[in-house]
Amino acid sequence: MDKLPDFSAENAPIFLIVIILGLVLLEWGILVFNKQSKKNTEGWINIASAALTFAPVFALQKLFFLALMFWLYNYRLLNLGTEWYVWVAAYVVYDFGFWLIHFISHRVRFFWCLHSIHHSAKEMKLSVAFRGSFFDFILVPHNIIWMPLLGFNPVMVILIDAIGKIYGVMEHINESWVPTKRWKWFEYLFVSPSLHRVHHSVNHLYLDRNYGETLSIWDRIFGTMQPLDEREVPEYGIMKEIDTDNLITVQTDEFRSLWSDIKSTNKLMDKIKYALYPPGWNHVDGGVLADELRNTASLKLLNSTNS
Q1: What is the pTM of this model?
Q2: Domain boundaries in the chain?
């Protein structure tokens, strides 16, 4: 069985945008009306960044990505069909692909230059989900374009991607709507808004944790899970203080910093390391990486509890 309802794959992004945009505007309007948003300008930066992000992604999807996925499906390794369990398997594969790309986005500095734009927001709300780089197309499609080669129908993959994106957007919901607290039973399998707030946190205890979009199992398997510690309230942003209300600064600051570091050494290998090693690395003494900061914060919290 390999039949799906009539569906125009190229229209999926349009349907997705309409649904999500409605949710974003509803939340933002209520936050502003109730005077619960402290960073209104940042919200406009989120929307402007979204326009920069989606323009090349949609253009390439129309011109290249969709065609590539249907072409790869002609050379699929397996005939998986479209039964319900294939949908489940496809979603699991999709979600792992997201986890892997997300992990790389934090651990390779060049890709962090792209992803840090998303993390630079200092207030959590749905529009933050769209806060991205003009060059996000380098990373965005690569958790799905190869799936048809395995045997997953491209239309199935596109629909699953849309569902995943909607779930991912909802993880950014503001605390005034969904308070920050642990959802212990839910978080055994799924990513909650609180787990994703931990991921967005600049607190040393929470750095580089919780990469999953829908499922939390990947973080448990690979040792990157960090539940909310109620003694440590998440604070959002990135390690470097920047003007988050300036679109040009938000879009370019990390690239400028990377370029400055690359120029600081004459050794070709060190230049390459600056681009490919984790953020925080330097050629002088190795720098201080997120793992060290997190371990120090964890030990400090443990000592304060025992004292």
Answers
A1: 0.87
A2: 9-222
